[in-house]
Amino acid sequence: MGSVSLKIGDGTARFKRATLCSSALNILMLISVITTNLFALYAFTYSPKDREIHSLNRTHKNISLISEQVSLILREIDASQKKLAQMEKEILGYESIDLSRSNVANELKLFLQRHPLPLGKDSKSGITEMVASVGHSCEKSMDLLSQYMNYKVSGPCPDDWSLAQKLILHGCEPLPRRRCLAKSVPKVGLQPFPKSLWKPVSDKIVMWSGLGCKNFQCLNSKKLGRDCVGCFDLVNGFENQRFVKARGKNDFPIDDVLALTSGGIRIGFDIGGGSGTFAARMAEKNVTVITSTLNIDAPFSEFIAARGLFPLFLSLDHRFPFYDNVFDLVHASSGLDIGGKPEKLEFLMFDIDRILRAGGLLWLDNFYCANDEKKKALTRLIERFGFKKLKWVIGEKSESGKSEVYLSAVLQKPVRG
Ligand SMILES: *[C@@H]1O[C@H](CO)[C@@H](O)[C@H](O)[C@H]1NC(C)=O
Ligand SMILES: *[C@@H]1O[C@H](CO)[C@@H](O)[C@H](O)[C@H]1NC(C)=O
Ligand SMILES: *[C@@H]1O[C@H](CO)[C@@H](O)[C@H](O)[C@H]1NC(C)=O
Predict the structure, then answer these.
(1) CA of 46 relative to ligand 2 center, distance in Å
(2) Which positions, given as ranges, span the membrane (predicted)?
(3) Least confident of 4-8, 73-77, 160-164
C-alpha cells in the first residue's frame, strides 16, 4: 500500500504516497529513535550514589565504564542518524536517490521535485502528485549524473552524448530531462523517402564527438560487431544484399519470411538493428520497422534517421516502451545475447513475447551460440513459449579457423487462452 510507480517496470524511481500507514510508521520510527537516545542519556548520567555512595572512590572513577557508555551513545547517535536519513529520503519521495547529498546538481533536484496535482487527488489513478522518473541505478553513478545535470539553464548543452550513453549503459535509464539546447548538426542534403534508404550518408550530418572514427570510411574498415561488418557502406560490400540474397542456409530472404503468413505484417521492431538495413528492406515492403540501437562506437541513430527510418535509442536492459500485443514482427540477431545469468535472457524474451501479437513472428536471425550448452538453453527457453517453429536452422560458420554455431528461426506466437 502507498507505493505508486508512474512508469511501470524496473528502472523507474518510485515514490511513496503519504498514506495513514506510512505516516504512522514514520511516527513510530521517530519515537523509537527518541527512546533509544533517552536510554543512552540515562546510562551516561547514572551514578550509583543511592547504593554505594560511601565507598565511592572518586579518584577511581571507572574510566572504562565511561568510555564504554560513550561509545554506546555514539553508536546510538549513528544509528539514529541513519534512521533519520532514511526517513528523510522517504519524505523526499525517492528511496534510492539521495537528493540530500551536497554534490547533487540543483537541476537534478528540480527535475525530480514532486508536483502536487492542482486539484488534489486524482480519482482515476489515485495519485496526489506527479513525479518525474529516472533510473534507480542512477544512484550508482551520482558523480556522472551530477556532471550530466551541470549546465547553464536555457544555454547550449555540453557536447556530452557519450556521457549520456555511459550513464545509460550503467543502468541510469531513463535519464533525467535537461533544460538546455542539445548540440545540433545542420542536416544538409537529406534525401526524400524512399530514395533516402540507400543513399550514402554524408560525414558532415552526424556528430562524431566521443567516437574513435571521424568519418564513415573509417567505420567501414572496422568490424563493429557481429551484425555490423561494413554496415555503413550502402553501396559496396554485402549490406545492400542482406535480406535479399542468402549467403548460407541461416540467411532467410525477407520475401520468404513474409510468405510464411497470409499478410498482416505491417509493423515491426528490430532489436539491435545495426545501421537500419532490415528496416530499410522492410520499408520497401511497406512494413514500418523501428530499429533499437545505441551509439556504440558509431553514430547508428543519426545514420538510421538519415535513411528515413525510425531509430530508438534504448538499451536492452530497459523494458520495451510499447504496449502489449502490438507488433506483427520482432527481428533480432546476436545483439539479443546480453550475457549474464540465464534469467537475464528470460526477462528479455518474455518482454519480446509481450509486445508481439498472437500470430506475430519472432525472427531470430543468425543468433550466435557460443557453445552447444548455450544453444540447448536457448532452444529450451524458446520451447517454453510454445511458439510455432515456421523455420528452424542451426548452422555452423567457420570464423578464422574456429567453427561457430548460429541459430536462425522464424517463430510464430501462439494464441494463448
Ligand atoms: C581510592 O583509590 C586510591 C588510588 O587507587 C587508593 O589508593 C585508595 O585506597 C582508594 N580508596 C578506597 C576507599 O578504596
Ligand atoms: C571498571 O569496572 C570494571 C567492571 O565494571 C572492572 O572490570 C575494571 O577493572 C574497572 N576498572 C578500574 C580502573 O577500576
Ligand atoms: C507499397 O505501397 C505503395 C503505395 O500504396 C504501393 O504502390 C506498392 O505497390 C506497395 N509495395 C509493396 C511491396 O507492397
Answers:
(1) 16
(2) 24-44
(3) 4-8
Provide CB contacts within 8 A for 43, sequence distance 6+.
Answer: 69, 72, 73
pLDDT, the chain, mean: 85
pLDDT tens across 78-137, in order? Answer: 999 988 887 766 665 555 677 777 778 889 888 888 888 888 888 888 888 888 888 888
Q: Which ligand is nearest to the CA of 52?
A: 1
Alpha helices in 58-151 (DSSP H): 63-92, 106-112, 142-148
Residues 6+ apart with CB under 8 A from 199: 191, 234, 307
Torsion (CA) 367, 10, 328, 296 in degrees, nearest 10: -50
Identify the three-state secondary structure at position 15: strand
* Separation between Cα atoms, residue 167 and residue 163, nearest integer Å: 6
Q: How far apart are CA 45 and CA 330, in angstroms?
A: 72
Q: How far is Cα 172 from Cα 143, in angstroms, rounded to an integer?
A: 12
- What distance in Å separates the CA atoms of residue 296 and residue 159, rounded to the nearest whole number? 16
CA of 35 to the centre of ligand 2 (A): 28
Q: What is the pLDDT of residue 20?
A: 46
Is the Cβ–Cβ distance between 333 and 378 less than 8 Å? no
From the CA of 286, how far away is ligand 3's center (Å)? 6
For ligand 1, mutation pick of 52, 60, 63 (most atoms within 8 Å of CB)? 60
If 0-12 CB within 10 Å is exposed, 13-18 middle and 19+ buried, where does residue 193 land? exposed
Task: Dump pLDDT digits (tens) for 170-224.
Answer: 999 999 999 999 999 999 999 999 999 999 999 999 999 999 999 999 999 888 8
Residue 98 phi/psi, 5° resolution? -90, 95
Decide: 263 in ligand 3 pocket, CB within 6 A: no
